[in-house]
Amino acid sequence: MITGTPKKKVTSITVKDPEESTEDFTVKQGESLKLTATTSPSGASNKVLWAVQISSREKGTIDMDSGEFTADDNETGTATIVVKTYDDSNLSWKNVTIEVTSSDP
Fold first, then answer.
1. Cβ atoms of 93 and 54 closer than 8 Å
2. Over its length of 105 residues, how does the chain's per-residue pLDDT go in tens digits?
3. pTM (2 decimals)?
4. DSSP class of residue 39?
5. Dmax of the chain from CA atoms?
6. At residue 101, what are phi and psi to the nearest 5 degrees?
7. Does domain 12-101 have CATH number 2.60.40.60?
8. Helix then strand then coil, % of the chain, to nearest 5
9. CB-count exposure of residue 88 (10 Å: 0-12, 13-18, 19+)
10. Are 78 and 97 in contact (CB under 8 A)?
């Protein structure tokens, strides 16, 4: 007999910029943006993995563990980030976009 509290499945992922409390993301070329992810409901997996969608890799990189996106020095446009949560039997994901703008004045 297995005992313990059953794991809750993730029903939603919210991604924000902790400094701006927004879900609209813009960063200038060569600069970084720290993102945070929150899962729902309470008690669901909070293990998060970050990745840059293949078609957006020229726009920048993201630290898979911390969620810090660093924009490329030479590219502008939209980068799509994939945020995944996982546990033993549950995988959920959300795509978020970051607009990389010119660093020229």
1. no
2. 455 566 677 878 888 877 776 778 999 999 999 998 888 887 777 778 899 998 889 999 999 889 999 999 999 999 999 998 876 556 788 899 999 999 887
3. 0.81
4. E
5. 66
6. -110, 165
7. yes
8. 5, 50, 45
9. exposed
10. yes
